[in-house]
Batch of 3 targets.
Target 1
Amino acid sequence: MTNHFIDLILPLPLQNTYTYSVTEEEANFLQKGMRVAVSFGKTKMYTGLVFNIHTTAPTLYEVKDIHQILDETPLVNELQLQHWQWIANYYMSSLGEVYRASLPSAFLLESETIISKNIAFTEESILSDEEFLIFEAMQHQSQLTIHQVADILGKKKVMPVVNSLIKKSAIFIKEEIYETYKPKLVKYVRLNANYNSDNALNTLLEELSRAKKQREAVLSFFQLSTTKKPIKAKDLEKSANVSASILKSLVDKNIFEFYEIQTDRIQFKGDTNDLKTLNEHQQKALLEIKETFTKKDATLLHGITSSGKTEVYTKLIQEVLDAGKQVLFLLPEIALTTQIITRLQFYFGDQISVFHSKYSINERVEVWHNVLENKTKARIILGARSSVFLPFSNLGLIVVDEEHETSYKQFEPSPRYNARDAAIVLAKMHKAKILLGSATPSLESYFNAQQNKYGFVALNRRHGNVQLPKIELIDVKEKHRKKEMTGHFSDRMLKLIQEALDEKEQIILFQNRRGYSPVVECKTCGVSPECPNCDVTLTYHKYKHELRCHYCNYQRAMPNSCAACGSNTLDTKGFGTEQIELELKDLFPDYKIGRMDLDTTRGKFGYQKIIGAFEAKEIDILVGTQMLSKGLDFENVSLVGVLNADTMLNYPDFRAHERAYDMMVQVSGRAGRSKKQGNVAIQTFNPYHKILQQVSTTNYTEMYKEQLQDRWQYKYPPYFRLIKITLKHRDYNKVDTGVNWLFKALYTSFGENVLGPTAPAVARIRNQYIKNIVIKIPPKQSLANTKAQISKIRNTFEAVKDFRPIRFIIDVDAY
């Protein structure tokens, strides 16, 4: 009798797959991509993924049996596994880490996983006996680990039971706490059915001849009802000029009825509308894109802000859907998805599924299954970077919107992939096409297009031929000297704001620091309160009257006196969004000011609430950090102000200038999108800076050429590849010795191309000291051999007993 074995990928940072033995019927039933529960280590249970089924026993260790099989059909498909292997090889991480990053955590049950009951679940009749036992136990205990479940059932094989409870939504995996969402209900008015005939209406108006206001309300109702649209109670009050109590009395008389319509984002009812007809420039771009797709798999669309790129995407998407294939639409920011969902749903209705980290585990599991089974409601996937891991079976098109965005790069935890690059490989595996769109393409993509590696299409007219905004630079140094500053606003900026407000237009103000002020300083002795765990000063948040570290979330109350010298002359330096918001409230007390940054968009619907309020014109001035710069589309914004352009330029990074250019052009692209030309005002201490001059003329090619020259001169991408190695440990001396040893070892292999060792700007975070080494790889040097050499050095490094506890992080293409 032959023995059967399977190789499993375990969700752990292990370099190899791990072999377990199975019986013959199990081997016949199992397929690549199914999950099995196994024990690994002394007591731990993990969910492994079948990678291989064979009959060769491993020679180096004794094989264990598996506990049980968790799937009827594979959860992960063949193409996905190939893609994972590419990611693991290219980004120098292990398959286990890619597996862990890819699957929603509800699929990765472990002995330590905590489950909690779903309070909304009531259909106990659909539970089997064992499931009911667990469900009952959960009535007494709010949460259980898988270990405890095993004790309750008195057996080891509990994973399938827990699995099916999750499927039936009786329990949740305790991961993060999700904000429960109350759908927004809007109150509408309709006429009671008794009054549908004409006679009844006449009697009604006679009855109301005395109640003048009520009669007016009814007449206004008929005027509004000619449009055949549902009538909002708010609109009726407004047009008839009556109060809410009048409507209520009409409802009490059984003349009107109130009913509520839920305005919710996930349920999309209603017909799908026809796509907009493109204007000639968009049409031309569309034809050019299709033309390049005949020769190239990837195409870069360089379309200036508000040129209507989304409309071009929709046409391409429609063609791919007609061919019966799936579409992946990647977006850099969750904030962006809220707007684009509404836009695309308008055309494609319920063929869209959304996938990103603010969705609950159960919602993500659902999307996974829908994509795997190629259901119609998952024909278009809209998502942030993690959606490149979904189990697509016949992908036809990938759209990467705002492809220059740094948010596409994952920094922690491993795999540190770039979703744009991973998507290009994914498209190749599926023989699909990929379109990269941006108003400010990254230098690498533009370079690839210039080198004829990608197709290239330009769209340089704004939709409706609105002109690009007028950009003016305001010299703050000069304004300070002439005492023309009020707080952080120059007189010119305030004048522009006032003009826009008088015209009833909206304003976006951009400041890339959150909180009230980044530094608190004692005037007497000059000491600033610092974070005990990180080498950074604490940021002052006024609304909570506390100091906070933006690296590790340490917080403490704002002290009344200096901790060093005891004097109470604490002063704040620098400014963040919160301070701007408060200053605006003083300067423009009659207008609504909103703020959008990490602190105000914590919950699942944080973004939506703010963006919704701004779209509904409930907010006049919106202050925010860089989340505002990304592809959002507001009709009524006529002015965009950048309060301090210099923080972005003076940043120790070889991409600082390119990024500052991108960000300012993107944020100015939010102005004047619908009818008339918008204004952009940029406050800076150095208006003659090259980048700012290029922003003011929106001259991308000039910026590209200059930056490219610098990159060539100083040996940076796109010419040289970069691999960054970071060491972290609590003990400074350990890191220091480790990094010096490593530098010597790397230097013998790569010589001059090793930079370092350096400490980053914030050299200690969460009590871990950090040291970096950067390896540059010249254009002719083989990437694979370089990586193999680095891995070799890493293995030697980790074999040294003193160095073993140091965290060793490799980041390929670390930018």
Target 2
Amino acid sequence: MEIVTTHRNADFDGLASMVAARKLYPDVRLVLSGGAQETVHAFITAHDLNLTKLKEIDISKVRRLILVDTHEPERIGPFKQCWQDQRVEIQVFDHHGEREDLAHARPAGGPVTAVIERVGATTTILIERVRQSGAPLTVLEATVLALGLYEETGSFTFASTTPRDLEAAAFLITAGADLNLVSQTLRRPLDPDVVALLNDLLEHSEVHYLEGRKVLVATSTVDRCQAEAAEAVHKLAELEGVDAVLAVVMTEEHVEVIGRSRTPDIDVGGIAKEFGGGGHAVAAAAIVKGRPLAEVKERVVQLLTQRYRPTLLAKDVMTRPVKSVGADATVKDTEEQMTHYGVNVLPVLDGKDRYVGLVSREQIQKALFHRLGALTARDIMHTDHYTAAPATSFHEIEQIMLERNQRFVPILDGPRVVGVITRTDLLRTWHDDVLRTVRIRPKLSEPAETTRPMHRRNLSQQLRERLPAPLFKLLKEAGLLADRLDLSLYVVGGFVRDLLLGIDNLDLDLVVEGDGIAFARKLAAEHRGRVKAHERFGTAVVVLPDGVKLDVATARTEYYEFPTALPTVEQSSIKKDLYRRDFTINALAVRLNGRGFGDVLDFYGGQRDLKDKAVRVLHSLSFIEDPTRVFRAIRFETRFGFHLGKDTLALIKAAVKMELFHRLSGHRLLEELKALCSEREPKTALKRMAELDLLRFIHPKLVWTARLEKMLLATEEALDWYRLLYLGRRMEGWLVYVMALAAVLPDRGMAEWLKRFPFSEREATTLKAFRGGAHRALRQLAKQPPLKPSAVVRLLQDMPDEALVAMMAQSSSDQVKRQVSAFLTSYQHVKPVLTGVELKAMGLKPGPQFKKILDRLLDARLNGEVKSESDEQELVERLTKQ
């Protein structure tokens, strides 16, 4: 007799695997070894799966036993007798544990054939074999298999899910699996007993932090069945959003340990095995007899810290490079450095750059209060603080920081400070799960209420999907190069913002914690590229043979000597580098190193503000230090349809009141005006500037009026028309908008602009040509009767395209617009057939008359007087006779 069975208290994965095994071994009998979970039992009752009752089986006659979803004899009830009988052949299909676990499993030495593979469900292993065999599935069979697959993988949301599970699901859907029935079966309302147990577990739970992971350990003395306990623990893991749950539940007969984990790093299966139980890394259970609940719970906590595989070391969490102060620096100088860098603690180094102690802002302020500014950092520093090495485990560091109430830990490589870990680093590592549940809009084209959960903060898949394959490969290789050089590498800024918003952007800015120029040169050397370096700023551009360009910069910090000054820049950490950026939505980074490739760094709430559609500055002095950020805030607000944060709006109004914009150089102001007028809809941004009283800084007489609004709208329409022509000619669209602004200014307004703003020679020439010739040309073009085409050409041929488009926008005459349009699309391309060569062939001698004849031929062509080469020849003959 051949039997297929699964573990006691069967779940849907066990049941489904049994049904699938019968498709491979048609003569076997399906027998439950010891009951089933409540929902599984209800399903079996409602659907005829042709199961054999255990009491109908004479176990002594079994000659082949097929175990599915388990390989532990302690979990198969009376069928353990078969395991101990060497005459019985054992076949195992499981996705728990390793094949080595069975090497010496049978004491009698009987044959064991095992298929144990790391997939999301045992059902998957058997579905693949059913598919290969070609055995047909009924709708009910396909549905049962789907139940096992969907339940065991959490509908493909568990970390243990593999691509093979998804392929298996696709096969079942093709076979006719009833997904409505699957959904109804798995999404049942909670039983009152489960709710009671769940409530008790919640009331008696505690969170343990394990190197950035949250593990909930809960206990209960509510006496409920094993099935209810497993269901309650599973629900608890979902509700609390932690990385793992370990529940210790007391019953009348024993204590049960049930574990659920979202990551294989926290191996609950290993903990269950310590109690004689079983399962796998993300789901396991054990029954403990003869030990009190409190003792079992304490042992669980102990095993949790012992068996958890550490993944974080100091070098993974620390901030680097580190700002420091010399031991001989005065208290006053030290305070200035703290203010410049925005820090509250500085390591103190001796004359050989060796670490000797720490100095805090509190110490500095007390010294200054007592008028001791001439003392040195050495005089007031602390020397007994705890320090760690790069390879020190994060767990050790967090424990000591908590025990000593130490907010700043220097990380030393020998006597050198290579990084620091602060309370902020500690909190962010602990509560990383909060960042993994931010919700953001995927695309600007979707309605405002359409959001999706970002369950992970890793964007490697988005990078793969949004970037061309060669560029994605380049980033991966750059990350591996950074690993070899022991550097941290990130892509930062607008690219990350747009990646999260679903906007195409191939403008990549890389930041290196270390020497960015040296990294750029090594990257270029590996890819046969070239480097253009800017030593002063620590930046470089890598140009590869295929034309791809990467901007590479050293992670920097900056401070301003006075408002509106250009910043002083110094090498720093990625955290400080992001802090110097303009807005939170631009202060985002994605790690490119091989380990953690795609991880998002969001120190300042950028993802939250993307979700809230808000533009916010990083600190209250942002606009005072650099008023041009106001113009960028307006650009982002109008480009993305965002709004200015309440505090940010108040800070803009304060900067306007302080008249800081008058202190900006003409060059910086012009660059911001160019950028704003290069947006897709500058009209909206300019109107917003008017609302914030900013137009007067462009020109004192520039105000928002209905006339200006109408002109800007006409400019937008004219530029759209021009772009549709695809003329392939250079067009500075922003310059056309500047002409629209100039049109509402007094006559001297353009002259004042040309004096204040450093326009290029071409730009200045275009503006002068427009101001000098546009009004005259418009009057001529508006005359009745309309000018002949030849006269239009003579009038417009020397004007740049920007001036012509501006004329179309600023004229209310349809006749003028038609003539300018005809010039751009047709007239300027007209040429006579005859050239000087043909005139010579006709016997004419070169001389001044050549130009007169050719000009006359062109006029005749434009005006329709001649239509063919013969017509032109006749005209030449007439002209020569005259």
Target 3
Amino acid sequence: MHGQSRLLALLAAFMPWGPVHAGSPQPPASTVTHTQASVEWQGNGLLLEVTALRDDIVRIRIAPNSGHLPEDASWAVLPTARQAHVCATPTDDAHAVGFATRSLKISINRLTSALSITDDKGTPLLTDRGAPALLPSDRHGFTLIKTLPDDGHFFGLGDKFGPLDRLGKSYAMWNTDSYGYREGQDPLYKDIPFFIGYTHHAYYGVFVDNTWRTFFDFGHEDPSALQIKAEDGPIDYYVMAGPDAKSVEQQYAWLTGPPAMQPEWMLGFQQSRWGYPTETALRDIGAHLRADHVPTDAVWMDIDYQDRFRPFTVDPATFAHFHQMIADFAKTGIHTVAITDLHIADAPHQGYAPYDSGMAQDRFVKDASGRPYIAPVWPGPSLFPDFTQAATRAWWGQLYRHFALEDGIAGFWNDMDEPAVFDTPTKTMPLNTVHRIDEPGFVPRTASHREIHNIYGMQNHRATYEGLLALKPDARPVVMTRASYAGGQRYGVTWTGDNASTWNHLALSVPMLESLGLGGFTFSGADIGGFAGVTSPDLLTRWYEIAMFTPIARSHADKDSGPQEPWADGRMHEDIRRHFIETRYRLLPYNYTLAEEASRTGIPMMRPLFMEFPDTLIHKAPMDLASGNEFMWGAALLVAPSPAPESPAPYRVTLPPGQWYDYWTGQPVTTAQALVLKGAAGSIARAEEGDTNTAHELKVAPRLDQLPVYVRGGSIIPQQPLVQSTMQTPGGPLTLHVYPGGNCQGSVYADDGQSFDFRKQAYNRVRFRCQIDQKGGLSLTVGPTEGTFQPWWHAYAVVIHGRNAPHAQATFNGTTLPVSVADTPIGHGLMVTIPATEGSLQVNQPIPEK
């Protein structure tokens, strides 16, 4: 009889809303409490609370039925989000308790405590397979098991090195120094326990806010189960209802904060290397960049410049004119970024200020016996700041005073902050190391490194960002980190760590950067050419090409690598690399508009195809999974590198439904084979006449000097004349490249590129729309100017692609203007120059080319 009851209970977990029949198991004693925005369930030894923070976001907290939940505190989720709530309508019946909002329905099975979440269309998003499993109190930890839908796919978790889809894989959340990592190696540097799920045309998000070592299994151990496990810590997670991926990203940004807006120069090309050992060597790099007319905005200094590798020092023998060198770079439009690792040399009585002040203020992490923890890193025996204390972060921030205010260093780089430790099998500090939490919103207490490890790098990043902000309140801080946690995007940028100079690393840098963007880190990049190993000339050139369509374009390598500067490997390769760098600089108005959008909404600059085409499926799956390494650069540009970039073999590119143009020629794509994506079934067939759900497939023969890039019809892309750095003012009008198509629109955003004055309306945003009339004429509407900032341009050169009618006529606000056929770096088209003011441009009789 006991076995029969257990079977019935298991069935009830999967059918919690079915009718009650005689002899069915009866719900155990439980307590249900509804508030305006939540339901609390106590039963089966559990205390379960579900709160509607918004109509499309719920928070789930679970604990043993001891009468209270754990401390309501978070390093990741903003207090304003955790304290938010909306009204929810109770939906209790004989079988389940719960509530509904306008976007979600929550049900808790009275018999099993299993939780089910559906969207407003009734699509099951997350369904428990039984109650959460809590380990005994002396062991801690928990396991959540969710039903994995037959059509499920999963994306995210930060810098995981492999395919974009996590289905069939399992992952650990544990920040790890991973030099020269390989495909499938896990974990890596950052752990962002957030993923986007897909099922039945719906996209949803799940964020598990637990800093302890956590595991995600997407059908690896059990193909029918999504499992989330942690060795300790609270069950505290958030579910976002989508319904599309863009909505999920905006919901996640609302929870954990949008990315910190970067100064414009961070979107320029940047040159770095561990192996510029002297001031002369570094100056030669800057001079070579300018002499070869390679547009550049920054040079980076690795640990070479430091005195005995000690952070916040300069070697007086090899960098004797440090301050002057930085000033000289600035005169040529080159910013300087310096590494400042977190390990402070154990150097008593040596006049090393960071050590002296840190010891005097008791700012370092303790070992289990209560003494400062000391371990070997680059300077030798080193101490580690206790960043879980607000006072320690303030102390750390002040260490930048000389570098930032007197030397004029423009940005800083926090490396080794997993934290990495030498000569230990775990590559990090012992798990019983003691941190002291003294942080607003937290109860003051001590915590072991087991709990703090995954946020340690994030808090180092935060300390640097907030310290620079305190020193220069009107300047956007530039801080790059290697390790982080969810919410770390609020403090700056990141990169994919110590990658390798291999074709595989180049190919997989695309899904890796997409994944970081999904996790909030839109401002991320991969070391061009690879950090570890020796790259081949063709590999390095290919890497330069793709990197120019990623958020951070930094060439970097270790001291044992070969040269990876643009001029390495001869004139032919340099010319190709320079061409793509120049393309990036011409695209700066478009790129900066994307960056501002990301900092405001959380929508990343580099996007999986499903973010722009959520309903386009191939074999029931988002089309990314059948489209090689294609990705969207913003909403307008599709970049299609080969999925096997080392191969000379032709490969197929799939263009989503709609009209497309070749970016490099400006001409419509006409040579592709039309495909039809048959809705939910995802089958592919030849297009029928008039079918609007038509995708295209074309075969591309790779060439070293080319990277296929396509423009979505209906896009208006702003571009500027070429400059050698963002500090140089472009000359002439801003060019608006118009690609006629459905829902034709675009925008451009500008501000001073460095301050926070945009928060006080000191920005300039203009939106554009275009429409094709029945006779083939085009009208372009220039919207009103938003904000008070005056950008460098005073006119728009409107280039209409796919048109070549030299006798066309144009008027702007009733005034007749000349029309010409212009050749531009990205193809020719009809061109009309108009003033940069609100109005309507009408171009009549632009007949398409035959």
